[in-house]
Write a structure and sequence with these properties.
Elements: H1 4-14, E1 30-36, E2 50-55, E3 58-62, H2 68-74, E4 82-86, H3 92-95, H4 98-107, E5 115-120, H5 123-134, E6 147-152, E7 157-160, E8 163-169, E9 179-185, E10 188-192, H6 201-206, E11 211-215, H7 229-239, E12 244-247, H8 251-255, E13 263-264, E14 270-272
Parallel strand pairs: 3-4, 4-5, 5-6, 10-11, 11-12, 12-13
Antiparallel strand pairs: 1-2, 1-14, 2-3, 7-8, 8-9, 9-10
The chain binds zinc ion (2 copies).
One zinc ion binds near residues 40, 49, 91, 93 and 248.
Length: about 270
Amino acid sequence: MEGHGLDLSHQALLRPKHVTVITPGRRHVMDVQFLGSGDAFGSGGRFNTCFHVTVGDGAFLIDCGASSLIAMRKFGVDPNRIHTVFVSHLHGDHFGGLPFMMLDAQFYSRRSVPLTLVGPRGFRERLTQAMELFFPGSSVVQRKFSTDIIEIEAGQAIAINGVTATAYLVEHACDAPPLALRFTCDGRVLAYTGDTEWTENLLAVGCDADLLIAEALFFERKVKYHLDYATLKANLARIGAKRVILTHMGPEMLAQLDHVTEEFAEDGKVVRI
Ligand SMILES: [Zn+2]
Ligand SMILES: [Zn+2]
């Protein structure tokens, strides 16, 4: 049963409403570990956004915020096993860890396997700028591994290393198209809102997903370009995801966690779908 029982009993004891019904013999496909569930400013001591997804003997990242290499070290993630990094949008708390990850791959982790980086239109230029700003010359240096940078458009689906990612346009200001991402692999669906205020596009992003990871920067305060828990909660039935975990939590949200009835992320938490 691949450890399902342990997770289930833990959840059942602590938070009965979060019990996931496991069909006997149903094999999990993805292990999703939250390497960062915080906002851009380290609220609550949480790392910037980064989700590590293990599929088969490989792994990919969803977002790689400025602190994500530190989070990888803390939670024992081997960067060399990550074949792809999918970036939702071009803010530092979502892609600012890539310059560090690239240099680590070169100097410490001694990566030899290819790395694929997927992000929205403008990603290549912004990543080059970030690398040159932090480590001049690092964007043009010869590496022992190949790097493939792919820019995707909203509405586009891309299949990489057995995972299909579909991008949806959301509402966020970062001087490039902000995306929500929906991943399918072997019949499982993992959806992620990215940073966004409420948009009807989220209905398609999270529809029937095995797991929807949703921004909840605020508890109930409405702020342009960001999602608050109250607005999300009011729309959860319409979205229809099988399981929802809140992330990207700021101070107001963290102060209200006792009043939150949905499941929320913790750095290091692992979810199997
Ligand atoms: Zn953010
Ligand atoms: Zn953002």
